C-alpha cells in the first residue's frame, strides 16, 4: 500500500509549482487535491481532512500560517509540509509553534519533496500503533531514536522533531563522539542538496537544541566543534 491512493492537499498559489507538485504526486500514486487560495482550501478540507498537506506560506485570503493552525487544531497527526521562499520566514513560523512537520525552501527539488512526503506518510501510518519502540529503535544514553516511527525521546519524554531534524539527530547519534562536518550532515538529511547551504544545517541544529532544552534545561549533548562541524557527546547521560 504505502502512499498509494493517499489524498494530498497542495495549497500553492504559483500555478507552475502547484502543477509540478501534483504531477510528482501522481507519479508516486498519490491523489493530489490542488488549491490556489487558503480560504478555499480550508472550506474544502476542514470537514474531510487529507492524508497530508503541502502548504505555501504566502496565500491569498488565508495565509499558510493560519491554514496550518486551523488544520492542526482539527488533527494533531495530520502531516503538514511547508514550502517557503526564505528560511528566515520559516524561523518565524517555528517561533509561533503552529505545528508543521517539515519544510523545504524554494526552489526545491521535487525528488526531495517526494522523499519527505513518503517519510511523513510512513510515520503517520505508524502513529496509531502501540507506543512501544520498533525493532529498529536504538538508544544512546538517555536518547532513544526510532527510525521507523521517526520519534525521538529524551529521558522517556517525547521530543517533537521534524523529518529533517530527526535525520540530522540520527546521523549524530549513530556516531557518538565523532565530529561530522556540515557536508556529512547535509548528505544525511538532504540526498539532493541543490538548495541547501551550511546555514541551513546550523539553523536545524539550533532548533533541535531548543526542543531538547524545553524538555531538559541541562541538555548539552550536541556540541559545535569550531571550524569542523558537530558531534553528539558520548557520555552516558
Using the coordinates shown, work out and report the CATH topology of the largest domain: Rossmann fold
- What is the spatial order of strands in the main beta sheet? 2-1-3-4-5
Range of strand content: 15-25%
Poorly predicted residue ranges: none
What this model shows, in words?
The chain has 237 residues and is an alpha/beta fold. The chain folds into two domains: 7-127, Rossmann fold; 138-232, Winged helix-like DNA-binding domain superfamily/Winged helix DNA-binding domain (Arc Repressor Mutant, subunit A, Orthogonal Bundle). Helix content is 41%, strand content 20%. The protein is built from eight helices and twelve strands. The chain has helices at residues 15-27, 38-45, 64-74, 87-95, 110-127, 163-173, 182-189, 198-215, and strands at residues 7-11, 31-35, 52-56, 80-84, 102-105, 138-140, 143-146, 151-154, 157-159, 180-181, 222-225, 229-232. The chain has a five-stranded parallel β-sheet with strand order 2-1-3-4-5, with helices on both faces. β8 and β9 (157-159) form a beta hairpin. The longest helix has 18 residues, at 110-127. The model has no long low-confidence stretch (mean pLDDT 85).
Amino acid at each position: 500500500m504505502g502512499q498509494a491512493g493517499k489524498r494530498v492537499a497542495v495549497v500553492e498559489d504559483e500555478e507552475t509549482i502547484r502543477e509540478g507538485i501534483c504531477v510528482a504526486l501522481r507519479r508516486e500514486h498519490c491523489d493530489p487535491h490542488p488549491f490556489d487560495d487558503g480560504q478555499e482550501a480550508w472550506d474544502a478540507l476542514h470537514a474531510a481532512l487529507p492524508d497530508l498537506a503541502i502548504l505555501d506560506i504566502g496565500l491569498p485570503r488565508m495565509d499558510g500560517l493560519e491554514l496550518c493552525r486551523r488544520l492542526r487544531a482539527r488533527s494533531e497527526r495530520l502531516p503538514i509540509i511547508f514550502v517557503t521562499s526564505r528560511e528566515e520566514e520559516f524561523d518565524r513560523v517555528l517561533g509561533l509553534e503552529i505545528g508543521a512537520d517539515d519544510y523545504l525552501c524554494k526552489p526545491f527539488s521535487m525528488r526531495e519533496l517526494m522523499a519527505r512526503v513518503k517519510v511523513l506518510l510512513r510515520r503517520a501510518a505508524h502513529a496509531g500503533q502501540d507506543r512501544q519502540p520498533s525493532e529498529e529503535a536504538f538508544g544512546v544514553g538517555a536518547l532513544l531514536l526510532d527510525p521507523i516511527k521517526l520519534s525521538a525521546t529524551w529521558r522517556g519524554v517525547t521530543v517533537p522533531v521534524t523529518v529533517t531534524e530527526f535525520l540530522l539527530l540520527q546521523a549524530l547519534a549513530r556516531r557518538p563522539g565523532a565530529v561530522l562536518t556540515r557536508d556529512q550532515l547535509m548528505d544525511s538529511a538532504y540526498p539532493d542538496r541543490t538548495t541547501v547551504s551550511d546555514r541551513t544545517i546550523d539553523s536545524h541544529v539550533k532548533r533541535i537544541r531548543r526542543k531538547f532544552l524545553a524538555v531538559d534545561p541541562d541538555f548539552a549533548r550536541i556540541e559545535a566543534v569550531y571550524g569542523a562541524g558537530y558531534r553528539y557527546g558520548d557520555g552516558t547521560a
